[in-house]
Fold this protein.
Amino acid sequence: MSASGFFSGNYQKKLANILARSRARLPLTNMKWFALLVGSMLLLGSCSSQPPDSKISPQPPVSKPQQSKEPVRGIWLATVSRLDWPPVSSVNISSPAVRISQQQKALTDKLDNLKRLGINTVFFQVKPDATALWQSTILPWSDTLTGTIGQDPGYDPLQFMLDEAHKRGMKVHAWFNPYRVSVNTKPSTVTELNNTLTQTPSSVYVLHRDWIRTSGERFVLDPGIPEVRDWITSIVAEVVENYPVDGVQFDDYFYTESPGSALNDNQTFRRYGQGFASRADWRRDNTQRLIAQVSRTIKKLKPEVEFGVSPAGVWRNRSHDPAGSDTRGAAAYDESYADTRRWVQLGLLDYIAPQLYWPFARDAARYDVLAKWWADVVKSTNTRLYIGVALYKVGEPSRKEPDWTVKGGVPELKKQLDLNESEPHINGTILFREDYLNQPQTQEAVTYIRNRWGR
């Protein structure tokens, strides 16, 4: 099997060992996981190391979970930098029992509120960087829970979320940031990462320094290295196998460069980019390979678990591609090297949730133009479409987008939800993000949501 197949080199054995250790820590009821994993490896092992003429490696469609008749009414719940949860104050509590109680109560209070609002799906960020909010044998515990990377929080937040959400009749999708290692590159962050060397598991930052790059003012993994993609796949496999998640979601952070902090993958491109017309094509192929192998792994382990991606709202602008949308926004295809439209066409996703964070009146990226464009993309496929809506903009003054403050933002929100619920190829709405439900400027909109969706 080639180095750029499903699992490179000896990584098949490594992944099997990882999952075996995971199984020992979190016992399962049967041994089918191993047979399914091996089958997944064999199925994908035939991937050629040479890209096809299109430079994008096609994959046959995967089987899809049966679609629920109820539209998704979702919310993103972010844990990176403790944006939505856990409470910042809880981290400084000296008593572990009090900290655990405060964090758990904060989460159940949120779930109770979401239930009242009619939210039926929570997209819970379980991997905000190269740390975990579950009992992992691959990643150290997240410092968002205790303030220290690798410190056991005394409970399993993912399992707690699943238990409490399912008790309330709500689904949970485990939200992963695939490549981010840290949110900054400060000396104090480097010290924290280095301190994990004596822990088990240690941070990927100290175990595989050759995988680490600086990009967008953060430490990130280099997506062009096959072993990196394998490693990410193994992390998703660990969660899917050991937890009753309803879905898995990747966010829009693939290649995450900024003007002053580009990802230096020159050496990686020289090693793995032969046969591609451009670095951009090679990067898009790298991203698609990750999506394909994660999709295959999930379907082999638990076919009922949904896999989706929440990309930037613009795939490509029509000025650059006749198949693109009539917009003038930053495009995922060109900016983050994610050919999201093609993933839908190839059947690699159960759902796609583009972030359409603009109002109807934003000429450069009109909400209705993009929503209808995406509906057209999915209509001949088995991929469902959920639209990401900018709750964080509601009530916020904006010179370019003044509609968010008209009557508390309710008219704009109503138009967006009306479109989502009337267009037959749109299967749901996801609000970004949970903490904005609690802000003063959104309260008129929150009341509207409760009256519209609440039970």
About this structure: The domain at 72-181+220-453 is CATH 3.20.20.80 (TIM Barrel).
